[in-house]
Design goal:
Beta Polymerase, domain 2, disordered C terminus, 41 helices, mainly alpha, 6 domains, 15 strands, five-stranded mixed sheet, Four Helix Bundle (Hemerythrin (Met), subunit A)
Length: 961
């Protein structure tokens, strides 16, 4: 669009001469005002007519260029006969102001669209308020069964709902009301009749053509069942309709819906309830089918009515930009609330921020949209007509081109054609992905001939070592009810997807295993058309699915169990940076918005699964080191524990009240504490509390909130926190449709399985100082406060530092550590001549952990810096800083830890035990760990151990046996 100021209009232009002749001499004698009127006259016969009929409007514009819109008219019982005229004059004045400010370059396109929207809303609200008062006088107000007043809700759809109404648009309205009932006046009406009449009167008041023209053309055809449907429906009837009858085009229409008059709050509440109809919970590439259908219908209309020059419906027009943005919103908006905006321009920016549009595509579409909308407005401003086609009249063409600062019509048309071509290219690209999928060749013919036909030689040619077994599996799959009962559209998608998957599986080393995994996944998604659509529409998702399934039994199992993880295959965040530590908690905390605990657990688990899936893909892709993945998995567990603690507290307070001044916390041990969690790892937890005492030997009891008095059962602190801990364990292990959150191990608590599930802080302190075994202090080295009251966490950290930092005899400590490690090795090491146990084998991860724990316990009294880190890399560096490891050992141990951890994560990703055939990297890692262990004077190998005196660890071993 040419944004320069239009050249001055020749003073003898007949259009200008005729226009200025309509104004009083004092107006014509004002040179500045005359110049402005000349420019407006070039662009709009309508505005000139309004200004001539309403001199007061021209006076206001002359004074301040219409800086503020005109005040709304007053409609009351005393001037009811004048309501139509007042509304029409007001709309005309407001519209003339918009023309004035647009033509004189005082407003940009967005301001004009917003002004058109605001003017329509104002007229609707004023008109409805007047009619409501009139209906209340005649029929009373509608009340539901509880006596609550019910009001009409007016939903604006289309560009009115989106806040981007064009200059001379009709307004798409749908009427609804919250609850059924009856009016309470002398002539009562049922709610449906009351609101239907009210809505009809509103449409008539705005739409009917009078001597003053019309106010707004009202279109009610977008309501449920169209013209055949009732004028106004209750929310319950609307929901039922969308559940049973809702069609794809209605999802697009209601995507922009907004309550614009009447009971706004009730309308917004209904739209929240309607959101699942509009936005699916998962990536919804099925929306493209609806888009293709609508596009085909519009293309047929364009051809039938010769609308190639229609800048709204024609190729590369406004509608294609709208459909493109809305389709991407529908596809991704179920997962990302930021994409659910009603404004098209804001949606384009949000889609770019979420990486669903490139910055180049966004800028192109934004510029094209503004270009087309400005031209559309000028076409309509000319005579206040709802037109979208380019004019045929030569004079009109010259006026439009001149008003938009083009030298002539061909210049305007050349730029417009270029803009539309760019839009059409972007729009076609959205609908084209299916054509880019690879051809599965003979496998397609084989698959489509099943279950009775088909030559399994196609499977042998595809690489299957046992084509007969693969053939049997595929025939059995085709015969399942899930496949037989598919709709024609879903079956067509399946027929495109399966051959590609079968071909990819055939290239795998264990093709039969991969095929079995893929068929299990397909079986679980057959009833979810959106998932088949995702795989059908997006070759990238299909490719990443095969990659994940081939490489990881863990991911294959997760996707088959929870198909929503397919979304992660296309989520733009998958290929981008992974969440930082502070990002996990806000994402998990979204589950707390659900008051129902079961629903909250479902959302929390879906979030956990999605995030761990993303971490797993990054690990498989080699986009981040195993150490980073293990740390992120621990951070994710921290966030989940924080949310579960809040859910458990919420339930406890409802049932038993709260304990004032009490504190509770969760300590993570093992791989959770050391921030080296694996995929599918359980969590080692210890629960602590601290509660003030009352009187001699007494303990505080829980008390209900005032609103709960008489409805809760108080408990003393010990039982209250015991139940809280039990509830946390139960919530973490609750099986939902998304699986369970984590398996929990609480055996590291004081006194182990014989001890209480939750300990007081004081008893924990006493135990650590007087009764804990050396191996329990070793475990404390990696322990971390992961959730709960911050001050309790500070107190626990002080206990940990005091416990680990006290002086110890090096010889006795070494004996205890050696004995415990040898015992573990004897019981748990699964190494043999053919392979190595990465965790428990000699020179493995546990040997490294024991070495570092020993050095911390030995030296922390003299080097408090050893008490800060919990993770293995941090502990290695801390030991180096304290002089317990030399530089060569530090570098070698860092490398060894990385190799062993990466190999272990690779095993867990493929659902294998952490056991590998030793290669050069693993051998070097083991040698580095062994050398450091021996350098510290430790002997973990029973064969190398000299006879030792009876140690505390050995005594414990005998006692337990």
């Amino acid at each position: 669009m040419n944004d320069s100021t239009p050249p001055p209009t020749p003073p003898d232009d007949p259009v200008i001469v005729r226009a200025l002749a309509r104004f009083a001499p004092e107006v014509q004698s004002d040179a500045a005002l005359r110049a402005k009127l000349a420019r407006v006259a070039t662009a709009s016969d309508f505005a000139i007519a309004v200004l001539a009929r309403q001199p007061d409007v021209l006076a206001r514009l002359a004074a301040d260029d219409g800086a503020a819109p005109p005040s709304a008219p007053v409609l009351d019982a005393d001037n009811q006969a004048d309501w139509p005229a007042l509304l029409r004059r007001h709309r005309a004045a407001g519209s003339a102001r918009l023309v004035w400010r647009d033509v004189l370059a005082l407003d940009d396109v967005e301001a004009t669209l917003a002004g058109s929207t605001a003017l329509a809303e104002q007229c609707l609200q004023v008109a409805l308020a007047a009619l409501e008062a009139d209906f209340a006088a005649r029929h009373g107000v509608v009340r539901d069964g509880g006596g609550n007043v019910q009001r009409l809700v007016v939903f604006g759809l289309g560009k009115l709902g989106g806040g981007e109404l064009n200059f001379s648009s009709d307004i798409d309205l749908v009427y609804a009301y919250a609850e059924d009932g009856q009016s309470d006046g002398a002539r009562p009406l049922a709610a449906e009749a009351y609101f239907a009449r009210l809505g009809q009167q509103l449409a008539k008041l705005l739409d009917e053509v009078t001597a003053d023209g019309f106010c707004y053309r009202v279109d009610l055809r977008l309501r449920p069942f169209g013209n055949a449907g009732r004028v106004a429906l209750s929310f319950a009837a609307m929901e039922q309709y969308f559940q049973r009858e809702g069609r794809d085009w209605e999802r697009y229409a209601w995507q922009k819906a907004r309550p614009v008059a009447g009971d706004i709050a009730a309308g917004e509440g209904f739209l929240v309830a309607l959101r699942p109809f509009i936005y699916r919970r998962y990536l919804d590439f099925g929306a493209l089918d609806g888009l293709r259908t609508m596009k085909a219908a519009i293309a047929a209309e364009v051809a039938r009515k010769d609308l190639a020059d229609d800048i709204k419906r024609g190729p590369g027009g406004i509608r294609e930009i709208e459909f493109l943005a809305q389709a991407l919103q529908l596809i991704h908006g179920g997962r990302n609330a930021e994409l659910r905006g009603r404004s098209l321009l804001r949606a384009l920016h949000a889609l770019c921020e979420a990486n669903h549009l490139s910055a180049e595509a966004r800028d192109l579409l934004v510029a094209a949209y503004l270009h087309l909308r400005r031209l559309e407005n000028r076409l309509q401003m000319l005579r206040d007509a709802q037109v979208h086609a380019l004019p045929d009249d030569a004079s009109d063409r010259i006026r439009i081109a001149t008003g938009l600062a083009y030298p002539d019509w061909p210049a305007l048309r050349t730029e417009l054609d270029a803009v539309r071509e760019r839009v059409a290219t972007e729009f076609d690209a959205l609908l084209a992905p299916r054509r880019r999928k690879p051809d599965a060749g003979a496998l397609t013919a084989y698959w489509q001939a099943l279950p009775e036909g088909g030559d399994r030689e196609a499977l042998a040619d595809a690489g299957y070592a046992d084509p007969a077994a693969a053939d049997t599996a595929l025939r059995d799959f085709v015969r399942t009810p899930g496949v037989r009962d598919l709709s024609d559209g879903a079956r067509a998608r399946l027929d495109r997807v399966v051959p590609v998957l079968v071909q990819a599986a055939g290239a795998a080393i264990d093709s039969q295993l991969v095929l079995r995994r893929l068929l299990a996944l397909l079986h679980n998604i057959l009833r979810r058309a959106s998932y088949l659509a995702l795989l059908d529409e997006q070759p990238a998702a299909l490719s990443r699915l095969v990659y994940a399934v081939v490489r990881s039994a863990f991911l294959a199992e997760r996707v088959a169990t929870l198909p929503l993880l397919l979304d992660e295959l296309l989520d733009a965040r998958v290929a981008g940076p992974l969440p930082e530590r502070g990002d996990f908690a806000p994402q998990c905390a979204q589950a707390l918005a659900h008051e129902d605990t079961e629903a909250a657990l479902m959302v929390l688990n879906e979030t956990r699964q999605a995030l761990s899936f993303r971490i797993a893909l990054a690990t498989l892709d080699g986009r981040q080191h195993a150490q980073e993945s293990a740390r992120q998995l621990a951070w994710l567990a921290d966030a989940v524990l924080g949310v579960v603690l809040q859910l458990a507290l919420r339930e406890m307070r409802r049932a038993h009240g709260d304990i004032a001044g009490a504190r509770f916390g969760i300590v993570g041990y093992g791989s959770l504490g050391g921030e080296e969690l694996g995929f599918g790892s359980d969590l080692d937890l210890v629960f602590l509390y601290d509660a003030p005492r009352v009187g001699e030997g007494g303990e505080l009891q829980s008390e209900p909130a005032p609103a709960q008095a008489g409805r809760v059962r108080p408990l003393d602190a010990a039982r209250w926190f015991a139940r809280l801990a039990q509830k946390i364990v139960a919530l973490l292990g609750t099986v939902t449709a998304a699986g369970r959150l984590y398996d929990i191990d609480v055996r590291l608590r004081p006194d182990g399985g014989k001890g209480l599930l939750v300990s007081t802080l004081a008893s924990y302190d006493e135990y650590q100082h007087h009764r804990a075994w050396t191996w329990e202090h070793q475990a404390l080295v990696r322990a971390r406060f992961v959730a709960g009251d911050g001050s309790l966490g500070d107190a626990w950290r002080a206990i940990r530092s005091d416990t680990l930092g006290r002086p110890r005899g090096a010889a006795a400590l070494r004996e205890d550590v050696d004995a415990m490690r040898r015992r573990m090795r004897a019981e748990l090491d699964r190494s043999d001549a053919s392979g190595f146990d990465l965790k428990q084998g000699e020179g493995g991860l546990v040997d490294l952990e024991f070495l570092l724990q020993y050095l911390v316990l030995r030296d922390a009294a003299q080097a408090p810096s050893l008490l800060r880190p919990r993770d293995t890399p941090g502990l290695i560096d801390a030991c180096a800083g304290a002089g317990a490891l030399d530089d060569h050992a530090v570098a070698a141990l860092h490398d060894a830890h990385g190799v062993l951890l990466a190999a272990g994560l690779e095993c867990t990703l493929d659902r294998r035990r952490r056991w590998v055939v030793e290669n050069d990297a693993v051998a070097a890692a083991r040698a580095a760990v062994r050398a450091a262990v021996h350098a510290a004077g430790l002997v973990f190998d029973e064969r190398r151990a000299a006879p030792r005196e009876d140690t505390r660890a050995m005594r414990q071993l005998r006692d337990e046996r």
